[in-house]
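Data availability (excerpt). The following record was deposited with the supplementary files.
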Amino acid sequence: MATNIKFNIVKIVIVGSGNVAYHLAKALKQTEQNLVQIFGRNQEVLNSISKELDIPVSTNELADADLYVVSVSDSSVEDVSEIIKNPNAIVAHTSGSLPKEILNGDYKKASFYPLQTFSKSKDLDYAGIPFFIEAENKDVETVLREVASKISKHVEIADFEKRKYVHLTAVFACNFVNHLFARAKEISDSQQISFDCFMPLIEETFDKIKSVNPKDAQTGPAVRNDKRILEAHKELIKNLEQLAVYEVMNASIQKMYNLD
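Predicted structure:
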């Protein structure tokens, strides 16, 4: 199915008002793209976004657009996508773990996945965020690539099979790592040690893997196979969840380096 949409007149509606929707709206606004509406359920949140970004919002009347970006929770994508009735429109979801076919309607289906962790309270450099896009045909792909390329320096075509692994890798590299930060802060808080003391260590850890393979950058008692320190640490940990994390992580490290 071909599309006659010209990029310079693409009208865009974002469906959703969560963290990803907010940042996409901000990115589109900053790059002077034609974002005509944010549509969602939470009037209070929508009003806040509208006031900040000067974008029309609605909870009941969906504006006409060439591109609808559905940015809601994975469990809601299918149902929410049913409200879009324009057969000439492109409809793209922002999920990394769903196929474009989850979109339920008679329109051009696509995926528009920004690889980043989003919080409304944290500013981002949108130009550095990789976008993974998939479309039904080259014409739609061209439109999505143009929209994404105005925002980011890194735009890549990725089918569902590839996006699944991108998303899985992101869970390991971001969600699990952040959980370890949270567990680490529990320990430092319990001993009245400021977590700020660990910021240089955290920053160096992330800076190092920009030039060194993470496997080659591993340090610590597990990779040294220092059983005395490993046992001493376990005696210090009274929280069973922390202990379970400690044991699983050390076992995984030792298995990677054939030390188990």
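Summary of structural features: Residues 160-190 form the longest helix (31 residues).
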